[in-house]
């Protein structure tokens, strides 16, 4: 298949580019350190030979990413599951989900799709702000990521959005790939997951027909991702205080790397992915007289409801809601021991925050809110 040159700056690697990408990656000293950690005692040359036996990106994912994630999750989770039985594994979808973990949200979905019998994994939308080192960019492109260019002037950003949209339509229709994209730019730091209308507008820039028909060509499937524990909760709370105390605060590249490392290696408890039905039929039912502004707002609210209604709630979500409100309204959903364990967990997370002017009551409220918002939105979606 010939892929148009206009996608070269953002697309994953083509098969013919893989040998050179493997060699470039393996020559990087920082990546060599990563390999030493992941594969202790295994010579670099052995890994090189194994990589060069992977002629496609899917082969690379199955040989390396799949096994790595399985190994990591065996160590940091109490199991991870997917409910997508109602989806046709022969079809291709754009999975649009809430966003908790920079690396593992799409990575886990890939593993779960393979285990569920899907013929391929997902091409992953990733922001260029995370690609701070050349080897990181090579690695994500090997893992079937395409790049969302964010650090551009406004005029160039509009053109980049159009090309991004065209690439997504090309990936679904021509490459026959699935896609994963977060419902908004970046993670929802307070877990109040809301679909950004701008994401929908971007996806509707390409394709044929009306905006609704263009979105239908991507076959959107909302997915709810539920982690029992978010290992980055203390980092998010820290950032909340930093932004409160200094409105000009901006995260550094090192902050993003710390978040990625903490998310990948931190304890998550139980993890569940719940896919909704493809929303093509919903989109087809929308009135053609609806204005674009009204249309995108309705679709965003629908996706939010589909995600919120499919959260898997854990005792700590209900406990956080009661602790935040100073009530015991949901006490039937957790035991005294679970409540005490969750409070001790929060104390340990707050202790990990290194701020000179540490505001512990505020930080506690922020962490409680992260876990409570999941319950709030779930209960509202089921009213």
Helix content: 40-55%
Q: What composes the largest sheet?
A: 7 strands, mixed
Q: How many alpha or pi helices?
A: 16
Quaternary state of the chains: single chain
Q: What Rg, in angstroms, do the CA atoms define?
A: 21 Å
Q: What is the number of independent domains?
A: 2
Task: List the strand order in the largest sheet.
Answer: 1-7-6-2-5-3-4
Average residue-wise pLDDT: 95
Low-confidence residue ranges:
none
Textual characterization of the structure:
By secondary structure, the protein is of the alpha/beta class. It is 52% helix and 11% strand. A seven-stranded mixed sheet has the order 1-7-6-2-5-3-4, with helices on both faces. Helix 6 (134-142) links the parallel strand 3 (122-127) and strand 4. Helix 10 crosses helix 16. The model has no long low-confidence stretch (mean pLDDT 95).
Please describe the topology of this protein:
Layout: H1 18-26, H2 29-38, H3 44-52, H4 57-76, E1 77-83, E2 94-97, H5 104-115, E3 122-127, H6 134-142, E4 145-148, H7 154-173, E5 178-182, H8 197-203, H9 211-216, E6 220-227, H10 233-245, H11 253-265, E7 269-275, H12 280-285, H13 292-308, H14 315-325, H15 336-351, H16 360-381
Parallel strand pairs: 1-7, 2-5, 2-6, 3-4, 3-5
Antiparallel strand pairs: 6-7
Helix pairs in contact: 1-3, 1-6, 4-5, 10-16, 14-16
Quick synopsis:
This protein is α/β, with parallel strands linked by helices. It has helices spanning 18-26, 29-38, 44-52, 57-76, 104-115, 134-142, 154-173, 197-203, 211-216, 233-245, 253-265, 280-285, 292-308, 315-325, 336-351, 360-381; strands at 77-83, 94-97, 122-127, 145-148, 178-182, 220-227, 269-275.
